[in-house]
Structure to design on (257 residues):
């Protein structure tokens, strides 16, 4: 068990962050172990406006700048059993909290905050992260990369539609007809016998039938052509403009040479 825990009493009012660097809430009060008289639990105001309170174990907790880093996750705190903050924690309540956070519980008292936790690797970090938990001695710089591709979408539809229109057609068609003309021929030796055949004086009629052509119109449907739609692919060039973000790293203060 770590000694020298008096600095933990200065944590009241500080912001608590979990081991991933996510904010949990502000410390309202500290609860000490009755046997060791050392801080063991922090009562942290959580929720959107700090209206909720949860007990957070400060085993392995340590300052990180103005914040306090604890070794649990924010979701664990959110799901922790709710206890009455105006009363001391009973052994049963404390055991329930230890069980929730996965911490072994003994009757001899247990967890306290560590003032200087050991680094997780053999190489000590050169500096500390003032905006969150220290991960290692380096800072990662990231930037956005633009990835451009294409996707297919429907741009329109084309259909063939057949409809009927009426046109006026004019044609000139020759038509024939029969007409009568009177021909007179003198009596000659060649036709005298025909002229004298019959009575000398009589009444007689001759009839001639006349004919003519008339225009007859007939319409018939005739296929003229076949029409279809064919697709072809053409390639154009499209210009795009997009903003991408990238991180820059600069140094401040005296960096020597």
């Amino acid at each position: 068990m770590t000694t020298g825990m008096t600095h933990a009493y200065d944590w009241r009012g500080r912001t608590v962050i979990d081991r991933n660097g996510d904010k949990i809430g502000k410390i309202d009060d500290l609860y000490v172990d009755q046997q060791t008289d050392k801080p063991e639990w922090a009562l942290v105001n959580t929720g959107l406006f700090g209206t909720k309170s949860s007990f957070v174990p400060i085993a392995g907790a340590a300052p990180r700048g103005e914040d306090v880093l604890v070794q649990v996750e924010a979701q664990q705190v959110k799901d922790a059993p709710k206890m009455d903050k105006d009363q001391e924690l009973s052994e049963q309540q404390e055991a329930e909290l230890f069980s929730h956070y996965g911490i072994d519980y003994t009757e001899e008292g247990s967890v306290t905050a560590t003032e200087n936790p050991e680094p997780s690797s053999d190489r000590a970090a050169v500096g500390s992260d003032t905006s969150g938990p220290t991960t290692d001695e380096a800072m990662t710089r990231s930037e956005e990369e633009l990835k451009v591709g294409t996707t297919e979408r429907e741009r329109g539809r084309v259909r063939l539609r057949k409809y009927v229109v009426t046109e006026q057609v004019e044609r000139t068609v020759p038509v024939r007809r029969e007409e009568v003309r009177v021909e007179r021929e003198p009596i000659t030796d060649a036709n005298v016998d025909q002229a004298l055949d019959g009575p000398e004086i009589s009444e007689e009629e001759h009839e001639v039938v006349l004919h003519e052509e008339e225009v007859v119109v007939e319409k018939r449907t005739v296929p003229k052509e076949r029409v279809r739609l064919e697709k072809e692919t053409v390639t154009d060039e499209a210009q795009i403009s997009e903003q991408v973000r990238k991180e820059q790293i600069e140094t401040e203060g005296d960096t020597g040479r």
About this structure: Residues 6-101 form a domain with the Photosynthetic Reaction Center; Chain H, domain 2 fold (CATH 3.90.50.10). Confidence is low (pLDDT under 50) at residues 112-125. The first strand starts at residue 15 and ends at 17. The radius of gyration is 56 Å.
